């Protein structure tokens, strides 16, 4: 059984840490604006297995820190979180959704209609590209 619901920002931190930056301190996955965003958790059989955070500036939304615990990856949970926030953004009348995607994950975002921009950067040992989708 899979369920997605809004969660407190602090519940995202352990998942982000384990899934994205396990070799860095826990504080490194906390965002300074975490308490300004919306956070969603995916529960698989009542266990928090994935998270995503959503921030808006007017009708343009950015998602950050889409993360699924390693033991739950490759089961379609990341796709379920992405579908959920896409639907959420449409309900909110968002005009666009964007993210800073790890370059090695951009194929995942192409599946949802995101396009790659020319904006790239390197941070915390990873190459990133800005990807966006008009809604």
TrEMBL record:
Keyword Calcium (UniProt): no
InterPro entries (alphabetical): Acyl_CoA_acyltransferase (IPR016181), GNAT_dom (IPR000182), YpeA/RimI_acetyltransf (IPR050680)
Domain N-acetyltransferase: 1-135
Single GO MF annotation: acyltransferase activity, transferring groups other than amino-acyl groups
Phosphoprotein in keyword set: no
Keywords assigned by UniProt, alphabetized: Acyltransferase, Transferase
Annotated coiled-coil segments of the chain: none
UniProt protein name: GNAT family N-acetyltransferase
Species name: Pedobacter frigidisoli
